[in-house]
Protein: Triosephosphate isomerase
Amino acid sequence: MRKIVIAGNWKMYKTQGETLDFLRHFLGQLADTPDGREIVLCAPFTALGALSKSLHGARIRVGAQNIHWLPEGAFTGEISGDMLRELGVRYVIVGHSERRQYFGDTDETVNLRLQAAQKCGLIPILCVGETKSQRDAGETEAVITTQIEKGLVDVDQNNLVIAYEPIWAIGTGDTCEAADANQVIGGIRKLLKNPNITIQYGGSVKPSNVDELMAQPEIDGALVGGASLEPESFARIVNFQCP
Ligand SMILES: O=C[C@H](O)COP(=O)(O)O
Structure:
């Protein structure tokens, strides 16, 4: 049985105070959330400690948005797995397209970050996906196959989540058709040694499309950006309705 994981990626949004305010409104809306749905909040580094401390007993896991591959060193602006663990972090996003586009992440550094996360007992969420021009050129499968094959060298497939995030659908409101996302994710699953890995869809997931996306047989959850910033909207997403 594959685990359903619904993660909010807050990107560079929310101070500690805003994080606590979010929780005050969000936690009360989880009373009817079906068992078996793992809820993760991937907050900025500065809010991780406050988030962990405020969650005691709540069924939410804390996630980070980046990890360096070494335990310590002269790497200004980076953070290690042990530092994240100390803050109560359980998940970490690796290889998000924004990290690849703006901060120079490559399949090789993504691979190192995945290995480091697992070594520290964190569950990495590996993001893969194609640009609009790659999709239009019919290169989606080839692009994702390379990202998966290079990214997963020496990575334990029993301790991993994958997120399929078509880059053209991120923050655009332009969601991938549910059937298309299902097909790409089915293709990703065929590349894996462990076919039971949780594979999420990400890219303009919102309350109005989450039910259709989650009804697809290959999709095991969502990685949600903008719509995870408001408690009501993210609560509706984690409480998605099954058909
Ligand atoms: O990590 C989340 C993705 O980048 C999706 O962001 P979005 O839901 O705002 O499109």
User: Anything to note?
Assistant: The chain has one domain: 4-239. Residues 36 and 195 are 19 Å apart (CA to CA). The pocket of glyceraldehyde-3-phosphate is lined by residues 9, 96, 165, 170-171, 202-205, 223-227 (CB under 6 Å). The first helix runs from residue 16 to 26.
